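Hi W.,

Here's what went into the run:
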Amino acid sequence: MLFNSFHFYVFIVLVLGLYWSIPKKWQWVLLLASSYFFYMSWEPRYAVLIFLTTLVSYLCALAIDRYRQQRTLFLALGAAVNLGVLFVFKYFNFFFNSLQNFTQYFEIGMPVPTLSLLLPVGISFYTFQTVSYVVDVYRGTQKPEKHFGYFALFVSFFPQLVAGPIERAENLLPQLKAPHWFDREQVVSGIKLFALGLFKKVVIADNLAVVVDTVFTSLPEYKGLSLILAILLFSWQIYCDFSGYTDMARGVARILGVNLVENFNHPYTATSITDFWRRWHMSLSRWFRDYLYIPLGGNRQGLSRTALNLFIVFALCGLWHGAAWTFVLWGALHGVVMAIERIGMHVWSRKFQIPAVVSMAYTYGVVLASWVLFRAQNLADAAYIYRYALSGAKNFWRPDYIWATLNQVFGTNQLEMAIVLACLAMISAWEFGALDFGIRRWPRVWGQPVVRWTFYSVAVVLIFLLGQTEIQEFIYFQF
Amino acid sequence: MKYVIARLLLLFVIVVSSLLLVDTLYRQQYNLEYPSMGPLWKHPPIVEPYEIVKVGNSHADDGITFEFYNLRGLELAGVAQRFRFDRVLLQQYENQIADDAIILIDVSHISFSHRKADQSDGMQGNYYGRVSPFLIPDLKVSDYLQTTVAPFIRSGYAWRKAYSDEVRERIAAEEKWIDPLEATASSEPKEIPFKETKEYFTYVDSIEYELAHPRKIPRASYVDNMNFIFNKWYHTEEFDPQYFAYNRRELEKLIAYCLRQNWRPVLITIPVTSILEEGLLDDYKQIYLYDNLAQTDTQGVEYIDFTTRTDFTDNMTFFSNADHLNERGRIVFSYLLLQELVERGYVGPEVDGYRQ
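Here's what came out:
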């Protein structure tokens, strides 16, 4: 049940109707039942998996608190079960296939087992959430939750279950336990946030996806500027897809009276890759920082160790995104660049000031280059793009070459070209502040109901007119 | 709460009005009428009910015509139609089909291996507006509502698609365009295509002559298509032996349903080209068709297999591609079918409109 599907709208209207009608002490029961129903709409069998993960984490946390002497054992057990489930369902085949390829390279025959398992939706998100809870209890920063129902709801809360944000118990649990009344401000702001997310997803991301998918499914037909255009559009597609999902998740939660953490903060305005990761998928970055980077020593053990830690953390961050070498390389590339930035900062620290525009351009360039690895089906495709993206670079400035490129990519369909370029302009304006802050800079204009209503109405009409009728899944669901 | 609901309703009215306006402009540009919702329940009885009905996939859709049968015929076959939807369509028309009506059920090479039509493959969309939503299995409610109840909300998509099709056609036309000077410069003799007239094929003597003297067409022109079909049947997820048991059960239910309605179902297999038969694996027909039929409880219903008629399968002029009949083939095959129905006592000779 996707947020942009008819089923979800029926589901949420029913849930909200009941949520504000039933006694407040039963709201958590309704949310828990709704969350399991929501999850089971993908594959009922995997509800057992999330239930077992929840049960083990719940019991381990209680045991850590009660048996202080053996708390490390229970921490290990909790982490092993959670990460073990993730390994079996997501990485088992990748690991053994890679091992087989490695041994074959040295001409050592080695039979490897393979599992034909469907990847449970959202497994990477909820396992990280449960691991962080068990570790927090172990560290003493979080009291173990005694009420199994509340804890089960913390793990399965449907707005953020399948693609985050990855929540911490200290933020989410108290909100889930509290009674919630109908709050007009909260509901209106939740609806607006949901609509904004929907707009980003169905108007921008899905329309950009048409071009991106066309190019990536027949790569050998494209060279030069076409490839660069496809990657550029993909960078905005994935941003709108994922941040759109996050906005929808946060919007639904806000309507229910729950505030989820921010996950994006204008990432393409970042002035370094380090800054980029403070703005992109922030809940994941914080997770890796708190539960991996700092335990590895963080930046406290010298420059070379810091660089190594960054590399390890980001290679694993890449692996978290998908069981493929392209993702590992994508993460590793970010790790390497961050390590270089760290060393550069150390060597030239504050000797000269780089203009923000230059820093932003550098960061966006690196991010763009790395998205190639993220989007490519395999390493060969990525290598093709790196090899041919700059073919004929001397012509890139020529209007006739640009026009020919656009015609090739859009199949001479100028209507689609106009729609996609308008989407690109809209989201770029939003990202770089002109749209988001520009309108609000004129409170007199924005204060006029006619202006606001026109803006909202046009946005909703565009959702219907430009939304692809075939419902598209969110990219981050596969993780 | 009233505040929020009131504002949402106002937004709803503005948005619907805008979408209706856009939809009107789109329909004016392409001269399209606003679609009707279609039936909400089964069709009501009619004075002269149908006496013969065909169901099945594109093989039956292309292969059978009741044009020269002196019976009231109803054609309910369609592209990629499965047994489950054969039953759905018959249920939709059950009040309009006479007792004792003949129901021709096409059991083709692919019928038993065809994947179940679930919500993922969009098959249900073929029946929106034709069949009651309460009869369509695994109905995609949102899709149905958008298509039949509120199609105006899709006008943006439809407009873009129409424009996109125009662009594609224009490009295709430009690619096909041949320089007249080059064309006239070519001195190679052109093959003059055989001129078809429907009247010619309605004469029984002509049909019999055509069957006795198969007209040969270069096989090469069918080989590409044969390979395409071979790959489609063997190497796509659309067709797989894992669906045998499901489709056998569906066929049994279809037959049982027909018998409960006091109709006379007949199972038939429509011929494909001998080129395709040779191109498929030797045991294809045995495993995919005959073994399945043997394991199906056909409840005493007769089976007529036309794939063994080599006088038909060898004549390439009857086929539009390796496994579908063309207009000539349809007329001739329907003639053969009628002879079988007369011979087996389903209908009397007076039904034969080919001899009149």
